[in-house]
């Protein structure tokens, strides 16, 4: 067996240089033009066949092994977030207001490192690899769908048909040296909601002549909390968060309208159904009780990410052999975070694994999406080594 761990260590300067370059030049979802350009150039330099514009700014590299076999898709997301970076790092964002605060700069660099290693190993592969560099994982960013769905719409799972998927996330909630490879659910399904309330505006001193949408909004926010605390069974996970509230323009005017938005997270389809039903009943019921007109929009963002037993078992064996010293978490590590890999894994058997990347001593332990988020770059080595070895192992069996 080829030693991809040793190679990933040797390639670390390459991986780190790419990661820091992506970090300095972050791009929002569906605008990853510079990032995608570098990805395409690096893949082409290796001699890997490249297709651009798959899902707008997505890039796909196709590597054929020397022997026939299944096709495995390895997915790496490339997008950054609308956050102003506050890390003070020498490689901090030069694109003001945009930041790689989730680690996708690391994922893209890992992907190119994996491509380098597997390309050099192509004579030994019984099957093919699709390197899928995905745009806009973090949201729809003004489009009708996110990056994974848009790449699927553009045929990333077809010709040749993808048989299995592998994907990863650097994970700052856990320290360097922790790796999670689990069967079953790993990330929650997510919906976004918008509630538009229309009352009757008027003078702040004469509330009796108005229908106040702000008071109705406040009651709705409070009442929605009872869904998770009083409707869903205590041992079943669910989250409802109202994350925006907009209304009013000045201190002495009761406004005409108020708008709330937020997110719902669940794993279990029956819990999801219950939560969405109660959500609609409560938001509508409370709004109407308070005399407001209400419009409710609920949109599915992603289904939950469910790992396939067989693929996960294979990745687990690979991880055990590769990292005998590491803390391997096989007890389904669940997070209420969402991931649009859920869409691909609904169609194709896959495994989504996580690589611990925090380091308390180096102060690299802020949560994902925090303005001070940064990770220990040593995690890039484990990520690249595990991804390359897991893919090679799957094409041996
Ligand atoms: Zn994120
Ligand atoms: Zn992420």
In brief:
With 397 residues, the chain is α/β, with parallel strands linked by helices.
Description:
It is built from ten helices and 16 strands. The strands form four sheets. Strands 1-2-4-3-5-16-6-15 form an eight-stranded mixed β-sheet, sandwiched between helices. A four-stranded antiparallel β-sheet has the order 10-12-8-13. It is 34% helix and 27% strand. Helix 1 packs antiparallel against helix 10 (378-394), helix 3 packs parallel to helix 4 and helix 8 packs across helix 10 (378-394). A hairpin with a 6-residue loop joins strand 1 and strand 2 (59-64). The model has no long low-confidence stretch (mean pLDDT 96). It has 397 residues and is of the alpha/beta class. Bound molecules: zinc ion (2 copies). One zinc ion (ZN) binds next to loops.
